[in-house]
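Thread: "does anyone have the structure for this chain?"

Original post by V.I.:
We have the sequence but no experimental structure in hand. Need at least a predicted one for the grant figures.
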Amino acid sequence: MSLLQDRAFFLHRTRRWKQPVAGFLAAGIVALCAPLARAATVQVTVQDAAGKPLSGAVVFLDSADARRLVRPLADAEMGQQNLKFVPDVLVVPVGTAVRFPNHDTVRHHVYSFSPAKKFELKLYAGVPANPVVFDQAGVAVLGCNIHDHMVGWVLVVDTPYYTQSAAPSGSARIDKVPAGSYQLRVWHTSLPVGAPAHTQALTVAEPGGAPVVVQLTAAKP
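Reply from O.Q.:
Generated one for you, tokens below.
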């Protein structure tokens, strides 16, 4: 084979390999970008029964696909400080282990009798040896057997898409939500004890629709 023939053969093989490689790379880029392209932002404004902005409401999106993506938090705690639970509302995905450190100079006796999680941390100071695993979705109302005025809530959600409404606007924002059909749920401590979260169907599309307004008419003033 002559030098010219060698060069022609080399160029021919190079062209043959470039096309599939380029196609493979393009397909890979599209595959990587596709989940991002389908992600949307969900914006919710929460109001109380009088139509005023309500901060501290827990807003979350539930679906079968969302439940398959749930992962426990690696680090979660609800402390006691100045004879209060801090934070007073803790939101965690199912399966999260929560620590209850006592930062006060007096001992506490933390308990919950709620169906979502029943547990008792008997009179203690410092940090209990074992965290409490919240393995069922729902609301756990916490109290202290020594200080009756202390109350806290652990809301356990079966979804990775959750947030809380901000003050003073009552607005909540959840980013990177895949397009699809969800149940939008909104819960607040002012709802009657044992009352379910407000629920309504929500279709999430790219890149996200207009803000949704949710009025909790059952919320106590």
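V.I.: this helps a lot. The longest strand covers residues 39-47.
O.Q.: and The CA atoms of residues 120 and 140 lie 12 Å apart.
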